């Protein structure tokens, strides 16, 4: 979006203070250096910031927050800047400081007995996964951008990911947090306790708050035993209804083994095969719909391969599955998952898209796909419907690609109209307009209608109590 706002001056004394706190390496002020921090991954928003501050530890972060609070200058916390809703982009007028957690990336502790990982917010999710693996454990949180997305941002948005069906969202893996508050106070809640019922559960205030209440500096995350067996299969299915029936069969056979169950449309798969180098479809022919299932267990000699084959054979006989392939190696498992994980990048390369991160009860997913597809086709003939995502937990990324003969800017100009068309169906099915990506800068206008009354008022009261000056990521989440 074009920058039409005049710049606002940040006191030179504040910049001098920040430089004294974090040093030359920790402060970026050249517009060439700050520009990448001022634009989101989807290129929907382009802001401006006079400085990107990169503290090296929690003491520096607290000092930065104290200085900004004293000067009355708002702060935008930023992790890997992979937000789908503009949640980490500064304002266009240059009035906000970006605080990047990238230098705070230490692994503080891994305990294979307690099954905990204590890690700083700037570490990437991939680094966290690797640290757990080196200790013989598994951090079950997994998202497409895990090589770039940072732990702090993932917790701040309560990311879900592929394994939610078994392990829950990010908040379900958090035992403790260290948080720097808007005034620079540090709350050290880095507890490793599984049971701690002493007062309000403060950590859950900050998980999912998108940096509007404070900055997560470090976290204690739950780990699980590393799987001994993993099986992955890609299935061609005739319909979303069939995909749901397949999921139900796997759940009925052994719900503890189902680690992920993903849905993909034929349109989305065609974009991946077209735009992602090296991607190939290991089935006899393209299909209208696909399901990707992963089974995993830490139990020895669990016979997952036999279980996978048994369920798929029954589904083939029943006509629920038209064709299927089971990975024979780690490389093949990765290749099958790549067909799913590259959906967002492939859509980006295909053209402009409007993204809907929505959730409905699992049983309603096929109805969501059918009704929302029909509604969008009525709204805009030629629109290309690309739903995909976490069928196992009811979260579908109901994305819409621009018609082939339509200008991208003209298409994106109707983004709210398109989102609202999808959300009429979502709401009728008892769903949510924000399943795992957050509200960010893109969707606060939806909050009064969806969360109005006592719920929104309570959120606003919490925000005012913790951040009375509205200095933490203003313009995000709340309208």
TrEMBL record:
<dbReference type="Pfam" id="PF01565">
    <property type="entry name" value="FAD_binding_4"/>
</dbReference>
<dbReference type="InterPro" id="IPR016166">
    <property type="entry name" value="FAD-bd_PCMH"/>
</dbReference>
<dbReference type="InterPro" id="IPR016169">
    <property type="entry name" value="FAD-bd_PCMH_sub2"/>
</dbReference>
<dbReference type="InterPro" id="IPR051264">
    <property type="entry name" value="FAD-oxidored/transferase_4"/>
</dbReference>
<dbReference type="InterPro" id="IPR006094">
    <property type="entry name" value="Oxid_FAD_bind_N"/>
</dbReference>
<dbReference type="GO" id="GO:0071949">
    <property type="term" value="F:FAD binding"/>
</dbReference>
<dbReference type="InterPro" id="IPR036318">
    <property type="entry name" value="FAD-bd_PCMH-like_sf"/>
</dbReference>
<feature type="domain" description="FAD-binding PCMH-type">
    <location>
        <begin position="45"/>
        <end position="226"/>
    </location>
</feature>
<dbReference type="GO" id="GO:0003824">
    <property type="term" value="F:catalytic activity"/>
</dbReference>
<dbReference type="InterPro" id="IPR016164">
    <property type="entry name" value="FAD-linked_Oxase-like_C"/>
</dbReference>
<dbReference type="InterPro" id="IPR016171">
    <property type="entry name" value="Vanillyl_alc_oxidase_C-sub2"/>
</dbReference>
<dbReference type="GO" id="GO:0022904">
    <property type="term" value="P:respiratory electron transport chain"/>
</dbReference>
<comment type="similarity">
    <text>Belongs to the FAD-binding oxidoreductase/transferase type 4 family.</text>
</comment>
<keyword id="KW-0285">Flavoprotein</keyword>
<protein>
    <submittedName>
        <fullName>FAD-binding oxidoreductase</fullName>
    </submittedName>
</protein>
<dbReference type="Pfam" id="PF02913">
    <property type="entry name" value="FAD-oxidase_C"/>
</dbReference>
<dbReference type="InterPro" id="IPR004113">
    <property type="entry name" value="FAD-bd_oxidored_4_C"/>
</dbReference>
<dbReference type="InterPro" id="IPR016167">
    <property type="entry name" value="FAD-bd_PCMH_sub1"/>
</dbReference>
<keyword id="KW-0274">FAD</keyword>
């Amino acid at each position: 979006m074009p920058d039409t706002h005049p710049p606002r001056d940040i006191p030179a004394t504040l910049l001098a203070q920040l430089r004294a706190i974090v040093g030359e390496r920790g402060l970026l002020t050249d517009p060439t250096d700050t520009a990448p921090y001022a634009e989101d991954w989807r290129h929907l928003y382009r802001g401006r910031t006079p400085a990107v501050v990169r503290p090296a530890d929690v003491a520096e972060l607290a000092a930065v927050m104290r200085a900004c609070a004293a000067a009355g200058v708002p702060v935008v916390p930023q992790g890997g800047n992979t937000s789908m809703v503009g949640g980490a982009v500064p304002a266009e007028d240059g009035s906000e400081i970006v605080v990047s957690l990238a230098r705070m990336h230490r692994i503080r502790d891994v305990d294979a007995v307690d099954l905990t990982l204590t890690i700083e917010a700037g570490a990437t999710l991939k680094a966290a996964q690797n640290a757990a693996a080196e200790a013989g454990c598994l951090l079950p949180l997994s998202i497409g951008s895990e090589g770039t997305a940072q732990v702090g941002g993932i917790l701040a948005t309560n990311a879900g990911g592929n394994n939610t069906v078994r392990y829950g969202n990010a908040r379900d893996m958090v035992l403790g947090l260290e948080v720097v508050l808007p005034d620079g106070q540090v709350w050290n809640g880095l507890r490793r306790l599984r049971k701690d019922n002493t007062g309000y559960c403060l950590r859950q205030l900050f998980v999912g708050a998108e940096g509007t209440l404070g900055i997560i500096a470090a976290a204690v995350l739950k780990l699980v035993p590393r799987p001994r067996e993993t099986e992955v299969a890609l299935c061609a299915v005739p319909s979303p209804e069939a995909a749901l029936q397949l999921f139900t069969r796997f759940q009925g056979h052994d719900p503890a083994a189902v680690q992920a169950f993903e849905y993909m449309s034929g349109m989305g798969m065609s974009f991946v095969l077209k735009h992602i180098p090296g991607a190939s479809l290991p089935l006899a022919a393209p299909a209208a719909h696909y399901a990707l299932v992963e089974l995993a267990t830490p139990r020895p000699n669990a016979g997952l391969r036999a279980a996978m084959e048994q369920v798929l054979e029954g589904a083939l006989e029943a006509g629920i599955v038209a064709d299927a392939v089971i990975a024979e190696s780690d490389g093949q498992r990765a290749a099958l998952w790549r067909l799913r994980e590259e959906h967002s990048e492939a859509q980006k390369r295909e053209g402009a898209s409007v993204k809907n991160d929505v959730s409905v009860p699992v049983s309603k997913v096929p109805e969501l796909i059918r009704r929302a597809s029909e509604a969008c086709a009525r709204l805009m003939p030629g629109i290309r419907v690309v739903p995909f995502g976490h069928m196992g937990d009811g979260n579908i990324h109901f994305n819409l690609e621009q018609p082939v003969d339509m200008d991208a800017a003209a298409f994106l100009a109707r983004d709210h109209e398109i989102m609202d068309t999808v959300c009429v169906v979502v709401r009728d099915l008892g769903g949510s307009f924000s399943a795992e990506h957050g509200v960010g800068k893109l969707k606060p206008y939806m909050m009064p209608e969806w969360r109005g009354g006592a719920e929104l008022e309570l959120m606003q009261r919490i925000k005012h109590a913790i951040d009375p000056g509205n200095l933490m990521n203003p313009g995000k989440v709340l309208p």
